[in-house]
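Below is just one:
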Amino acid sequence: MPIGGHHSSRMKNDEWLTPPEIVSALGAFDLDPCSPVNRPWDTARSHYTVEDDGLSKPWAGRVWMNPPYGKHLGAWLAKLKNHGDGIALVFARTETRAFFDHVWGAADALLFIEGRIHFHHVDGKRCPNNSRAPSVLIAYGMDNAGWLLASKIPGAYTPLPSREGE
């Protein structure tokens, strides 16, 4: 399963790294279950790569997740939703089945990022072209919602309705 397929299938590479300034603005993470094998910077204290199959491994602590954006996106979001403590970065495709099944009615807050992200190659170099789609940070857990609000990442912060009574 590819990690972070953020661009079209015509691209030669399917690993696209989150700009380090986004991750660092969100505080320290305990686990990144979608990390590249060779990475120019750490995104968490522990990392799972495609070689580990982070989707099948147990997760602990606060999770940072920039998941594969293909057909398995829903499975990754479901795992983070069930874990309940973390932040995911995905395209802001709010009408999709993955969003309806695992974000709406499940997440605590969203941060719609202003403009388009320039992801990085696994060698650390910034991609010359932007992602060609808007991105959103999804917070599961009120502490993570607070991190989104305090992050100063340009965008629109949106708290989601309480899920009390579930």
About this structure: Strands lie at 31-32, 46-47, 63-65, 86-91, 109-113, 135-140, 155-159.
